């Protein structure tokens, strides 16, 4: 995922925020595609997932949420904003490179999928799993639960799932700081370690030129 990010910065900059939000914060692809500058609080280090009509409505009631994110994700978002195409973006961070406008219904799935297929086919380090853009979220959730041992309730709240017990869904209070402590601090430590210790980080970078 980190290699994919570096490649995207050089070749497909319009998709960087989508990769970072889905791969490092577990957002759904459509949630990532329609995050705007006004949804990000760089001081509080949070991202808000909310309705952005007519483009996107979160999947479930629990999907409307404000989550904390780590410094790594915020850095990618800042970079994406600085390299955003055109002036008709309306505050959206990921936009069509051709029009500089928000993704249309036909483009919103197509762009991330095509970008990942291109990367995997020609630029990914040998042995990289053949996954789809949707698997960025899946991989984040799976790794958080099975490897990092993140609190399952906190993880459900963080990624906007609703399949909990009645006790958890209706009688449990949670806060941004709870999610920061239980999810972000552990995930951020993993990303930082991965960036330093990735088996592909040096050799593949030289080979691929990223």
What attributes does this structure have?
disordered C terminus, globular, mainly alpha, 210 residues, three-stranded antiparallel β-sheet
Count of beta strands: 3
Major beta sheet summary:
3 strands, antiparallel
* Euclidean distance between termini CA atoms: 13 Å
Content of β-strand: under 5%
Query: What is the rounded Rg?
Result: 17 Å
Q: Averaged pLDDT, please? A: 85
Shape: globular
State the share of residues found in helices, binned by percent.
40-55%
- The succession of helices and strands, N to C, reads HHHEEEHHHHHHH
Structural class: mainly alpha
Could you list the spans in which at least 5 consecutive residues all have pLDDT below 50?
196-210
* Count of helical regions: 10
Order the strands across the largest sheet as they lie in space: 1-2-3
What does this structure look like?
The protein has helices spanning 2-11, 16-25, 29-33, 71-82, 107-122, 135-146, 152-159, 166-171, 176-197, 203-208; strands at 40-41, 46-49, 65-68. The protein is mainly α and 210 residues long. A 3-stranded antiparallel β-sheet has the order 1-2-3. Helix 2 packs antiparallel against helix 4, helix 2 (16-25) packs parallel to helix 6 and helix 7 crosses helix 9 (176-197). The radius of gyration is 17 Å and the shape is globular. 33% of the residues are buried. Residues 196-210 have low confidence and may be disordered.
